[in-house]
Amino acid sequence: MNILVVDDSAMTRMVAKKTLGTLGYEDVFEAEDGAQALDIFKQNSIDVVFTDWNMPNMNGLELLIEIRKINKDVPVIMITTEGSRSKVVEAVQNGISDYLVKPFTPANLKEKLSKWVGVTA
Amino acid sequence: MSEVMEASLTAKIINPVLEATIETFDIMLGCAVTRKELNLKTRETPFHDITAVIGLSGTTNGTICLSLPKETAFEAVFRMLEMRPEEIDELVCDAVGEFSNVVGGTAKDKIKDPDMHLGLPNVIYGENHHVEFPTQAHPMYVKYDSDIGPFMVLFGFVAS
């Protein structure tokens, strides 16, 4: 399964990739903004996207809109903080599948993957 | 602003920040934290080696800082990524900024004031760095001890 993690924080991407690795998911693509993520999405068969919301170049909402033009079904999961929950409403209106609140644990990630892709690594 | 109002504002904002700090250290770093004394900050109060600065705006103007000795920051990075930095580099700054962003986001949810806004953290480092607080504020700081070393939270704000 191919997972795309999008966040302008290298640390968050590394933590997510490491955590996914411990869960057995090794095919993880990383992007530091929406524009880079969209290129990766177009060039690869991505099964699930985890994306930050506040990013330079192309933010999470703009990325979501572009992805939905290409693929209406792929799970796109918003990574957010507790303080940004208000943005979840806007995200849902634009077709987000779910959201993951930072700080997240391996169990949180596993729960989202089980829910949206229905398989374990 | 009266002392009573200031004390009320401080309790409204800083208690959630302090709780959020302890929760974030626990969840992100698996790290037990012990809160120590609350002190008034003066210009002579030194910051640690690396500091994340979060601006407050809206109903409250001010600044909240998370300041860490470099050894504490390096250990935090090690706990998250299993790699140990040897200097304050881009990754360490990113980690401290992102960590503070999570503290701020968690605190904002607890404060429950939709008209108070927390900005994204800016990270500064180096010897004798300094952060200005609003001139009418009475900045304070709380020291912590933790499994990965000491750190402190500094804050100063006024009602808009």
Please describe what this structure looks like.
- The complex is a heterodimer of chains A (121) and B (160).
- Chain A is α/β, with parallel strands linked by helices and 121 residues long.
- Chain A has a single domain, classed as Rossmann fold (3-Layer(aba) Sandwich).
- Chain A is built from five helices and five strands; from the N terminus they run E-H-E-H-E-H-E-H-E-H.
- In chain A, strand 3 (48-51), helix 3 (60-70) and strand 4 form a beta-alpha-beta unit.
- Chain B is of the alpha+beta class and 160 residues long.
- Chain B has one domain: 3-Layer(aba) Sandwich (Chemotaxis protein chec), CATH 3.40.1550.
- Chain B has helices spanning 3-29, 70-81, 90-111; strands at 33-40, 50-58, 60-68, 116-118, 122-125, 140-146, 151-159.
- In chain B, helix 1 (3-29) crosses helix 3 (90-111) and helix 2 (70-81) packs across helix 3.
- Chain B starts with a helix and ends with a strand.
- Chain A binds chain B through residues 9-12, 14-15, 18, 54, 80-86, 102-103, 105, and chain B through 24, 27-28, 77, 80-82, 90-91, 94-95, 97-99, 101-102, 104-110, 114, 118, 120.
Structural descriptors:
heterodimer; A: 121 residues; alpha/beta; Rossmann fold; five-stranded parallel beta sheet; 5 helices; globular; B: 160 residues; alpha+beta; Chemotaxis protein chec; seven-stranded antiparallel beta sheet; 3 helices; 38% helix
Q: Could you provide a short overview of the structure?
A:
Chain A is an alpha/beta fold. Chain A has helices spanning 10-22, 34-43, 60-70, 86-93, 106-117; strands at 3-6, 28-31, 48-51, 76-81, 98-102. The mean pLDDT of chain B is 90.
